[in-house]
Amino acid sequence: MMNKFKRLLIGRPMKSAEIEGEKLTKLKALAVLSSDALSSVAYGTEQILIVLMAAGFAAVWYSIPISIAVLGLLLILILSYRQTIFAYPTGGGAYIVAKTNLGEPVGLLAGGSLLVDYILTVAVSSSAGTDAITSAIPSLHDHRVLIALIMIVFLTVMNLRGVTESASVLAIPVYLFVIAIFVLILSGIIKFATGGVHAAAPALGTTVSNVSLFLLLKAFSSGCSALTGVEAVSNAIPNFKQPSERNAATTLIMMGTILGAMFIGISLLAYWYGIAPNPKETVVSQIANATFGRGTIYYIIQGITALILFLAANTAYSAFPLLAFMLAKDKFMPRMFMVRGDRLGFSNGIINLGVLSALLVILFQGNTENLIPMYALGVFIPFTLSQLGMMVRWVKLKPPGWRVKFIINTIGMLTTLTIALIFVFTKFTHIWMVFIFLPIVIYIFYQTQRHYHNTAEQLRIDVIRDKPIIKGNTIVVPIAGITQVVKQSIGYAKSVTDNVVAVYVGFNDEEIERMEKKWEEWDPGVRLIVLRSSYRSVLRPLMKFINTVEWKTSATDHITVLIPQFITKHWWQHILHNQTSLVLRAYLFNQKNVVISTFPFHLNK
Amino acid sequence: MMNKFKRLLIGRPMKSAEIEGEKLTKLKALAVLSSDALSSVAYGTEQILIVLMAAGFAAVWYSIPISIAVLGLLLILILSYRQTIFAYPTGGGAYIVAKTNLGEPVGLLAGGSLLVDYILTVAVSSSAGTDAITSAIPSLHDHRVLIALIMIVFLTVMNLRGVTESASVLAIPVYLFVIAIFVLILSGIIKFATGGVHAAAPALGTTVSNVSLFLLLKAFSSGCSALTGVEAVSNAIPNFKQPSERNAATTLIMMGTILGAMFIGISLLAYWYGIAPNPKETVVSQIANATFGRGTIYYIIQGITALILFLAANTAYSAFPLLAFMLAKDKFMPRMFMVRGDRLGFSNGIINLGVLSALLVILFQGNTENLIPMYALGVFIPFTLSQLGMMVRWVKLKPPGWRVKFIINTIGMLTTLTIALIFVFTKFTHIWMVFIFLPIVIYIFYQTQRHYHNTAEQLRIDVIRDKPIIKGNTIVVPIAGITQVVKQSIGYAKSVTDNVVAVYVGFNDEEIERMEKKWEEWDPGVRLIVLRSSYRSVLRPLMKFINTVEWKTSATDHITVLIPQFITKHWWQHILHNQTSLVLRAYLFNQKNVVISTFPFHLNK
Questions:
Q1: With A222 labelled, which of A150, A426, B93, B277 sits at a CA distance of 20 to 30 A?
Q2: Cβ contacts of residue B457 below 8 Å, gap of 6+?
Q3: Record's InterPro entries (chains A, B) (predicted)?
Q4: Which residue of A has its CA nearest to B534?
Q5: 3-state secondary structure A138-178
Q6: What is the pLDDT of residues B338-357, one digit of tens each?
Q7: Smallest CA–CA separation between A4 and chain B, in Å?
Q8: At what angle are helices B26-39 and B296-329 packed, to 10 degrees?
Q9: Are A467 and B488 an interchain contact pair (Cβ–Cβ within 8 Å)?
Q10: Nearest-CB residue to B473 (from A13, A16, A495)
Q11: Higher pLDDT, B87 or B20
């Protein structure tokens, strides 16, 4: 039943050999990996305008130079990550780059930040997408958390089905979004050029008295919160079709170009139209409204915008499982993240991402405002570390033209570091949790590695000297009466050894006497030990007895506790029987050094 | 950790011999068993008045004769159950009486009704108690479900601690309630007698044109919905101190006297004061208000009334586990209901009652109106069956004076049957669920009994002919590599038999070749079988192999699958390892007829 449901949900299991077919073409990769970055145009310009409005409407013209600066940073990041792709063709996320060049602790800091950040990506994007819908349809406002959760479940299932299938489904809306935004930008420019817009924007270069450098930097860093997702491509190189590096680099440049064009277009239109940020209507919505009016085209643009925000969450579904795989390979995360599921995706990573982000959405009640600062910080820490790592690499290896590369990464590193520091100083009340959470994550990484190391050491064998040792056998059979399953268990025990002892726990004299008499009558050729329990507990006296047996014979004998158990025909019949044997097994398993054998007896009705 | 929490919550475990100390004295029994019945004065009169008001305020004088009729029925029920106590000194609830005299199916109908009814008692009483609180403190109205659930959890924990302790805690408020109501009645009578009340009630005997017999019967039956809980005493006789029958009978009469006096007192005051039912203020609250004004005494009375309603739920906590025990003894319910917990209470019954009633409260959002009709019907079905059973008993046994006893039970039976039928005809929309639910419960009873019967038959042994049979042994050891735990497992297997085969599942040629080579090098004296898996599943090829072994050797050999497993030092480390062996064990356990042995290897760091 469960199995059928699983098949319906995620499809037939696939052979390991089918893995090559799951690799991504450039166009599909663009859809799967760039929606996070592209969707940022839905709020990037707005973040800048919100900060500038603190200095009055006259200050909004600064959004143009600031947008150009963000564009410059985007260029630097793209160039930097292009260098990374060729330097680390097997997948060079911030984790790999920082680990290789700056040492393991720094790598883990980058990896930990990214893991947390991918979870935040899903939470923020699904919440923001929900906001876009509920802004358009206010009656859905009460169901915001539910809508976000439904999307997370949907994305999780799609990703469990496998990467390529989800790419095919998800590519269409990504391209629709790109087309919609370009249509909006072109129509807006034409409308502005033909004088169809009357809003008076403050002229470029107007002097505004209360604009400080701090305010401008804050506006710049707020705008940069939209640059998340750029690293997704360089992290996912092994997912690309051959030649994977070339394809990944091309995809990265395609993404950067589209993103840059859309972002500067929206910023220009917002400036020309003289749009002020409004908590009840997004900037994109205001531009679309001013250009087309609240007609069909407006609603299409809003709908696709909501969709792309949900798809942005999908980026994390490619990146998180891969990063978890890499961390698991280095033994910093549980081995289960290395296992490919029925559909060849890293199911455990996908499921963990879905559950954790859903928890965040519930915890923050789908409130994006409180999540975004952590989200942005979580991105700029690995950005900085990754570029620092590349700087070290160029200095060490000194390949041809390394000076230019070094300068690119240095500029990038300083910029991203500045932005991260601005976040820390201007929004500390929102992000302090990161400084508690990250050390805990890194501590867990090290504890996990230590455990694997210790385990391997204790399990290691010397194939020359360590050979199996043969000992005698003693078998203890706890029984609750004389039944068919006890008969068969005793038969089995006697087939193994002559040292068999049956143990019975009685609660009162009458019970004990009856049992002893019946045993004598049956006479199975095995000694019966009777224990008395005052506390209605079968386990305690039994454990005591097994302790004694262990103490007496473990030097010469293997001790086996043989548990007779009958198995009901239907699962629900289980609740009709006291599960003492299961509890006994769990107890022995965790406490004692004895072999635990279960003798099953299948009831056939 | 879990264990410590349990100790804190429910106290130290108690010896079976301590059970006598848990028996109830009469005064404690009155507190534990009568709160359900006594609390009914909080709403009994009101139920009558609500129905009568349908014919206008002039009709409220009928409440006096109707209350007297309810009192008469109470007398009949008390006399009847007193007869039952002496006839069935080991506990004669409706289940026992109906089963013994009317046959098993009727007994199960009574038992099923009562079980459902006890759950409804807890749900209705805790909801009604919450209503009383939120009527007094309207700001708590939004947290009604939460308050009711907290009370259910509290009662569950108290009852898990043991009967006597909870009796000591709960006796005080029950007696406070009795005192409070008598103070109210006496003060009210004095005030009325000294002319302090000016309300004009319609005179007794006033002719009201639209009062039909049907209306009067409906009012009577509504008033009777307050007679629940009378059977609790006769069901709980084994809980009384010796001489238990005498003590139970005395307790029953004490309870009936107090209940009758309070009920008629409240009805008289309501009539004298000319009180009309009001959905926003209970009748008791109106009387208290008219007598004392909204001062300290008023709030004390309201508070104690709320408390007694919560305690009414406690009655079910004594009755439900005992009835479940009796049904389990007859194999109609799972055996687990016969097990006494650490504190000697029937923990499983207590926990199940708590969970099911909490579910009802959540499902009905603490809305008492929709629960009460089912609740009342669920009581009057077993009332009727119990008295029918007693009638049959008197005719059969004909003890001295049986005619009087027969007449008492006949009158009772006819009255309760009539009330049950009135419920069915006047409130069918509220109670139809009972007619679906009860047959299902009875079906489950029979299925459970059949399963126990079948199991016993399949497990039964002939001690003369059925002796243990000795066979050979074949051991299969699935391995994932060559480690210390595999070395020890192989050593164990070789100590048992020479027919040992190790099985390895590989995913690709490289892996398989490496394994085969290392095995040859190690040379443990055991054959290695290598299986190849295309679907990354270890289980499927392994199961296939075990099938083959079973098919070949099960005639001559016991087949054992020995699973090497290392056990981590800390529980959380479990998640760091793939739990293939646990899944394999579960699979084998449910599907195959092989002995499953686990060889544990405890990691010590």
A1: A150
A2: none
A3: AA/rel_permease1, APC_K+_Transporter
A4: A15
A5: HHHHHHHHHHHHHHHHHHHHHHHHCHHHHHHHHHHHHHHHH
A6: 877 666 667 888 999 999 99
A7: 17
A8: 110
A9: no
A10: A495
A11: B87
